[in-house]
Amino acid sequence: MSVKVGIIDYGMAGNIYNISKAIELAGGKAGIIKTEKDFIGYDKFVLPGVGSFPDAMDEMEKHSLKDILIDKIQDKPTLGICLGMQILCKIGFEFKETKGLNLINAEVRKIECSGKVPHMGFNKVKIIKDSPLFKGIDTSLEEFYFMHSYEVNNYTDVIALTDYSEHEFVSAFQKDNVFGVQFHPEKSRDSGIKIFKNFITI
Fold this sequence. Notes:
Layout: E1 4-8, H1 16-25, E2 29-33, E3 44-47, H2 53-62, H3 66-73, E4 78-81, H4 83-86, E5 89-92, E6 98-99, E7 104-110, E8 119-123, E9 126-127, E10 144-148, E11 150-153, E12 158-164, E13 167-175, E14 178-181, H5 189-201
Parallel strand pairs: 1-2, 1-3, 3-4, 4-14, 5-7
Antiparallel strand pairs: 5-6, 7-11, 8-10, 9-12, 12-13, 13-14
């Protein structure tokens, strides 16, 4: 029986179709979560996101998903993607200081480097801690698609880093059953499908 993965639509998830398609290609069964009752029956959750940190939290409150999401994430594996990764953190500083879901003790701040921001395009990751999310990933060959102007500052839950213009940032974290990736696996071709396959088997 296929693992059922619920993609949380809180009004900022413009990449839901591509994520759903990638999950299906990885062998999972994808569905969309918009309300509290929609959480029923799923084995895992994906928290996507395209846009700004404060807008995402405003939409989360508007759709009455914040508290129920925090509760559900405690019980089942959850993967945050890009902005979805960032709002799992304690606080963000995009445009204004905004509280996140506070599931990861981290801050989200603008990338400060000599390169062009946003950081956009394919790049490699460097695994620094074993995690089932990167099982079988050859980091010397495989690349992932990034598109972001802000980064997660965390020092305890990091599982992968990425170099960009002589600047190193957190590209993936894991705390218990909560995972986050700064890149878009749904736009990362076969490498991204492998990430979803690993997530499905966790």
